[in-house]
Amino acid sequence: MELIFAAALCSVAVSIVLKICRDKGLLPMQMIAWNYAMASILTYLWFKPDLAHVSAAHTPWWLIILLGILLPAIFFCLSKSLQNAGILKTEIAQRLSVVLSLLAAYFIFNETFNQLKILGIIMGVGAIFCILDSHKRKQAVHGAKPLAAASLLAVWMGYALIDVLLKYTTGLGLQFSVTLNLMFIFAFVISILFIAVKYKSLGTWQNIGAGLLLGILNFANIALYVKAHMLLKDSPAVVFAGMNVLVVMLGVLSGLFIFKEKLKPLVALGIVLGLTSVLCLAFAM
């Protein structure tokens, strides 16, 4: 459980660092770009992928390039959501992307569903609607633009899309470490080209430093999560439930105590539904 807790802590720490840095005036896109530089290096050193023998003919470059574009794009949506909706709701939306992933598994990958999975999906969708509706009500009162609801929706759908594409990638027989490393490398290349054109610079030292820190946390989250699955290979539900529940709870605590976010009744209902949904989906696996 120590590994699961550490992985969840790193996951929430990514959001905390991203939100604090943005509030201090740093540029998220520059941080995101250098995050993938560090993540690429650490993936190569830790997982030791055999990049020298990657087959150009049998590697689905279109898929890796697509993921290389999606990863920084969705990371940027995460940054927007943290700014407009807060860390509490963003973490729940990110974790409940599993609901859409499971629906894709049913319709695309022909995965079988039991009653517990169906109940978990219904509760998960209900949780998302509670969180989105809470922002629609707030915007209706204050006349604000619907940026919060839109960014939350982008995080929810975006992370689900990435999850589905990763599942498709592993189904093609690519090694996890090679796939992960190539994705991070392409994400860095795409991001660095974007900021070079937009800002006429590769980033300030502050943005680069913050990005490298994000990369360490981002990679640590993945490495610890994979290690937990390896050590608890006979209990994947424990890893899945532990990770998701801990991330939601840590996200709620950081939102309440670090960023002084308010916990409204509709959001509280969404948290309860979300945690119940994650537990149902875990025990259904």
Automatic annotation (TrEMBL):
* Keyword Thylakoid (UniProt): no
GO-annotated cellular components: membrane
Q: Which domain of life is it from?
A: Bacteria
* Ranges that cross the membrane: 61-80, 92-109, 115-132, 144-162, 174-196, 208-226, 238-259, 266-284
Query: InterPro entries of this UniProt entry?
Result: EamA_dom, EmrE-like
Sorted UniProt keywords: Membrane, Transmembrane, Transmembrane helix
The EamA domain, residue ranges: 3-132
Enumerate the SUPFAM superfamilies for this protein. Multidrug resistance efflux transporter EmrE
- This chain's protein is named EamA family transporter
